[in-house]
């Protein structure tokens, strides 16, 4: 079992011989309670490539103090961290399975090894208000950090730092106000906010790790700058959604599908912006695959809410409770099955390769000459490829003679997927680069195809459920009412799709 809490703290660099500042009167602090010094011994772990540090995540096994055990810290900012605690295990040379599982995405599925050992002599001062309630805790640390890699220097690094941590449950804005007030008192004794807020980052100084290297952003005004900016935003959104899905928390499946498709749009539609190589091609394919599986789950979730309901009160009155319950049970089962598929996809090697490619594109961009042009020039090249591709797929989806219903659905889904992706690709550079009329028409086609896909899947499920009811001797009238409603919506979306095709 583990527990998680929010850690809000600020670290100050203090000269070794300097006295602590007087903090009475700062931020409601009116009393102090000095504790006896004690020792902490922590070993920090990371992958061979230092994936955790690059993701602003630390994992350590620490002995000593009141919170001995395995700790995972995820930095939300320089002062705010989400800290997860796991029990201390006997074997210091093996990371517990539950810790590895909690770090699966950040470590990219790779194994961990010890990278730094940090020993600390800590003296704690409790900072109290006028009633004796604790406002914050000050930890005066003398630190020794020993790198454990093959290129480690012979002598460990030593320094002194002071951590001030707000009590658990405090409002982050209140904590920031406290820290701002403390800054002046620390400045008066020659101290200031630490240049490096993490003991691990300071202990790793000088480590030869390409994963920790970053490149300058592409120049403003180029398509490459817009692509890098969009991928950074999409990467952050994907990691946040993935973490919620993996932990079992509620996550917006439609947003997940849209995020994955946005990544596919950048890697796919703007493929010449990236260096040649199979890595980017695999990343684009992985993003497309993730978008497809999450789109199916999002569609299943939509049908849970909408399929049992007709579009008018008069039709609603014709649907009996048994029919509605059968449909709900069926749609919920499909949603749960589709969500499991999404979770399985997050454990595949292709997903981890996609994250690696995103890291490289965001942190170490190597834009091609094609991408370093004006966005309007790049947009012309993208339009020349995307317009005929969308037109062909939409034409196949709304053809007069589909081979069968399944073929109709598949063709419509391909057109839907491609049109959504093209709209997202255009959004990267915006309608300042792409003709506004084209941008708007592609968006209209995407919206129309979304409704058509929903209607076709709804009809397929209703027919299956009606067949089951009929074989069981139950009435099928309610299914017919809902199916008729969806047939009307499918026909309307078909006509709109034909119109949209003629305008792309």
TrEMBL record:
Protein name: CYTH domain-containing protein
Native source species: Curtobacterium aetherium
Lineage: Bacteria, Bacillati, Actinomycetota, Actinomycetes, Micrococcales
